[in-house]
Design brief:
Elements lengths: L1 E2 L2 E2 L12 H13 L6 E4 L6 H10 L8 E5 L5 H9 E2 L11 E2 L1 H4 L4 E5 L6 H13 L1 E2 L8 E2 L3 E6 L3 H6 L5 H7 L2 E4 L10 H11 L6 E2 L1 H8 L6 H15 L4 E2 L1 H8 L30 H19 L4 H8 L3 H11 L8
Parallel strand pairs: 3-10, 3-11, 4-7, 7-10, 12-13
Antiparallel strand pairs: 1-2, 5-6, 8-9
């Protein structure tokens, strides 16, 4: 169920698969569910990090309290503080009444911050303070509000590389990375694909589509860059095109390539385009001189066409005015483009 504060699951999340990687994550979830320690869930986009966060909540003593989710990449930076900590009436334009933030909404339960690596640096400092003090302040208020939340964060980027780029705070990473769970890419657990396909088809309304063994073998051999999310979309596409039908390897191939089921497949590849003729003359060339001459010719023509107007010439050439002036100085071009 969606609310203004996030996602409150109405049914138990399911981590589908029998691979060793998924079995290990299930064991970790059962072991760590009742811990108060923050959890950082990493893995590629679409691999199911949100499912792990929901399971950690649902298996814990906090399960009777809210599970509140916030995608840090989906909220405008200037609204993120209000979304996370809430605001008082009149705190900013459009704040007509007071509103609790995600921390308050998750009191007693779990707060899940998805794509935390995309959080602006200024907001990272405020999140760090909230995690250290377990106190938040609404925007426009100085009244401290104590909160009791278990924080789960997820990211699909390398936070250590982000720290090296100056895009993520190292002290916040160490606060989040108390416990780490790593979701594998779907391509690293192909044995789970038949179970996932069966799980997704069972969730779809209407006559269920089925997949034969050859189709499943084909799916298990795919790279799935979008991971579980991409596989789910593929199953939904198969159901839409073939409701109640049976998917063989041929149909699966066409669906993977997003062809219409009625579009015939090309049996032979198109002929390669003819090679372009070489533009290089015989012998050696001075590329720097050639490029400078071409640049000078274009600038002179633009200046002459505009009557020496620098701004108009720069606009026509797709340059900043100051950039054009610098090029004119370097190439010794007079203001009107005349020799």
């Amino acid at each position: 169920m969606k609310t203004r504060h996030g996602t409150f699951p109405t049914q138990l999340a399911t981590l589908v698969g029998n691979s060793n990687a998924i079995a290990n994550i299930r064991n970790e979830i059962e072991t760590l569910a009742d811990s108060h320690a923050s959890v950082l869930i990493t893995g590629p986009s679409g691999s199911g990090k949100d499912v792990v966060a929901q399971l950690l909540h649902q298996r814990s003593r906090r399960a009777a309290h809210p599970f509140v989710a916030l995608n840090c990449a989906a909220v405008a930076p200037d609204l993120l503080e209000s979304e996370m900590f809430g605001h008082e009436a009149g705190a900013f334009t459009g704040a007509l009444k007071a509103r609790a933030g995600r921390f308050e909404a998750a009191h007693g339960g779990t707060l899940f911050l998805d794509e935390v690596g995309d959080m602006p640096l200024a907001m990272q400092a405020k999140l760090l303070r909230a995690l250290e003090t377990r106190v938040v302040e609404r925007v426009g208020s100085m009244l401290p509000i104590a909160v009791d939340v278990r924080l789960c964060a997820a990211t699909s980027i390398n936070l250590f590389a982000a720290i090296d780029r100056g895009a993520f705070r190292s002290d916040l990473l160490y606060r989040l990375d108390v416990i780490r769970l790593v979701m594998p890419a779907l391509a690293d657990r192909p044995e789970d694909i038949p179970l996932l396909v069966a799980h997704f088809t069972a969730q779809l309304p209407g006559p269920a589509v089925t997949f034969d063994d050859d189709a499943l073998a084909l799916l298990m051999a795919q790279p799935w860059p979008g991971n579980v999310r991409e596989l789910k979309n593929f199953v939904e596409r198969a159901q839409a095109h073939h409701p109640g039908g049976r998917i063989d390897a041929d149909r699966a191939t066409r669906l993977l390539h997003r062809d219409s089921p009625t579009t015939p497949r090309r049996t032979t590849p198109p002929p390669p385009p003819p090679p372009l003729p070489s533009m290089l003359p015989a012998g050696n060339i001075d590329l720097k001189t050639i490029l400078s001459s071409m640049e000078q010719a274009y600038i002179v023509e633009a200046l002459q066409a505009s009557g020496g107007a620098i701004a108009a010439s720069a606009k026509r050439l797709g340059l900043q005015r100051t950039t054009l002036i610098e090029k004119m100085r370097r190439l010794h071009i007079p203001p009107h483009g005349q020799a």
